[in-house]
Write a structure and sequence with these properties.
Length: 331
C-alpha cells in the first residue's frame, strides 16, 4: 500500500473515510434507533396464549396478558410505539362488522390494559373493517359486491371513537377509501378527542405481500380483491395525491405500505411533505427474509437492520415491523 512506485496519482480517495470503525461512524449519514421502530402485535382472547403463525416464523398471536409482558420488554429497550391487531373468532364477524366498535371487545380491552400497564407507550390501532367482516373486505358491501365508500364511514367513525374512549394515542385509518381522515378528525374533535392523532395509511398498495397477515388474522376474502380501494403498484403520482389529501384532511403522520418495493414513493413524499412519514414493512416482507434465514441462506437480523436503515435513508421517520425484537440487539 505504501509502495509509492505502485501508487496512483489520486488526490481524492473516498476510501480514506471508510478506513476505520471510528471514521465510518463519524461520517455515517443515517441512523436507526429503537424509537424509529413501531412493533406490530396480533392479539387473541384468553389468558396465557402464545399461538405461532405458520407463515410468519417467530411471530405470535398473544393474549393481552402476555402481549403486555412483551410490550413492557420492548419499552425498556427503547421502542415507543405499538400497533394492535385483534384476531377475531369467526362467530364475531358479520357483514355489518358491529364488533369493530364494541367497547367491551378484544381491541378495546387491549387498548385499556396496555395504556394502564405501560402508559408511556404510544398505542395505535387500525380503523378498517376487514378483521371484523365476514367477507374479509375493508368496507360494507352491497348486493352487487361493490365495496361502499360513503356508507362505511359511519362504522369507521364509531370504531375511531371507541378506540379514543379506550385511550388510544393514534387511530390509523387503513381502508384506502375516500374522505376517511377528514371525517374521523371531525368526529374526534366534536367529541373532545383533540389529542388523539391520526396516522393515515396514505398510500397502501394492492400488493401480493399481505398474504401472511391475512393468515395471521384468519381472514379470507370471500370474493374479488382489494384493487378498487388499494393502489395499483404501478403508480407513484397517485400516492403523492393520496398523501396530499390526507395531509389537508388533518393527518398527523403519513404512511407508505409496503416498504422496500416503494422506496421511490417514500423519497418523493419526503420532498412533498413536512409531516412525519411512516413505512410499514409488511408481513410478506418479513416472511421472505425469515424463510431464507431458516433455509440458511442469509442472516435475518442483519437483513432486517439493513432494510430498516435503507428506509431511514429513503426518508422514513417510523418503521412498522414484526422484527423489532430481532433487530433491537443490534441498535
Ligand atoms: C387491513 C390491513 C392489512 C394489513 C394491515 N392492515 C391487510 C390488507 O389490507 O389486506 C397488512 C399488513 C401486513 O401484511 O403486514 N386493512
Amino acid at each position: 500500500m505504501n509502495d509509492s512506485s505502485l501508487s496512483l496519482d489520486l488526490p481524492i480517495r473516498l476510501r480514506r473515510n471508510r478506513q476505520s470503525e471510528a471514521i465510518r461512524q463519524m461520517v455515517q449519514e443515517t441512523h436507526l434507533l429503537p424509537s424509529h421502530l413501531c412493533a406490530c402485535f396480533f392479539l387473541v382472547e384468553g389468558e396465557n396464549k402464545k399461538i405461532p403463525i405458520h407463515s410468519m416464523p417467530g411471530v405470535f398471536r398473544f393474549s393481552i396478558d402476555l402481549a403486555i409482558q412483551e410490550i413492557e420488554k420492548m419499552h425498556r429497550k427503547g421502542v415507543r410505539c405499538v400497533l394492535l391487531f385483534p384476531v377475531l373468532e369467526n362467530h364475531l364477524r358479520s357483514s355489518s362488522a358491529e364488533e369493530a366498535w364494541n367497547s367491551d371487545g378484544l381491541l378495546a380491552q387491549a387498548i385499556r390494559a396496555i395504556k394502564k400497564a405501560v402508559p408511556s407507550m404510544c398505542v395505535m390501532a387500525d380503523v378498517a373493517l376487514d378483521p371484523f367482516t365476514s367477507h374479509g373486505h375493508d368496507g360494507l358491501v352491497n348486493e352487487k359486491h361493490q365495496i361502499m365508500n360513503d356508507e362505511t364511514i359511519e362504522c369507521l367513525i364509531r370504531m375511531a371513537l371507541m378506540q379514543a374512549e379506550a385511550g388510544i394515542d393514534f387511530v390509523a385509518p387503513s381502508d384506502m377509501m375516500d374522505g376517511r381522515v377528514g371525517a374521523i378528525r371531525k368526529a374526534l374533535d366534536e367529541q373532545g378527542y383533540h389529542h388523539v392523532g391520526i396516522m393515515a395509511y396514505s398510500a397502501k398498495y394492492a400488493t401480493s405481500l399481505y398474504g401472511p397477515f391475512r393468515d395471521a388474522l384468519n381472514v379470507n376474502l370471500a370474493f374479488g380483491d382489494k384493487k378498487t380501494y388499494q393502489m395499483n403498484p404501478a403508480n407513484v403520482r397517485e400516492a403523492l395525491l393520496e398523501a396530499k389529501l390526507d395531509e389537508e384532511e388533518g393527518a398527523d403522520i403519513l404512511m407508505i405500505k409496503p416498504a422496500l418495493f416503494y422506496l421511490d414513493v417514500i423519497t418523493k413524499l419526503r420532498h412533498q411533505t413536512n409531516r412525519p412519514i411512516a413505512a410499514y414493512h409488511v408481513s410478506g416482507e418479513y416472511s421472505m427474509v425469515m424463510a431464507a434465514h431458516l433455509a440458511g441462506y442469509l442472516d435475518a437480523q442483519k437483513v432486517f437492520s439493513e432494510a430498516f436503515l435503507s428506509l431511514r435513508r429513503a426518508g422514513v421517520d417510523l418503521i412498522f415491523t414484526y422484527a423489532a425484537d430481532l433487530v433491537l440487539p443490534l441498535l
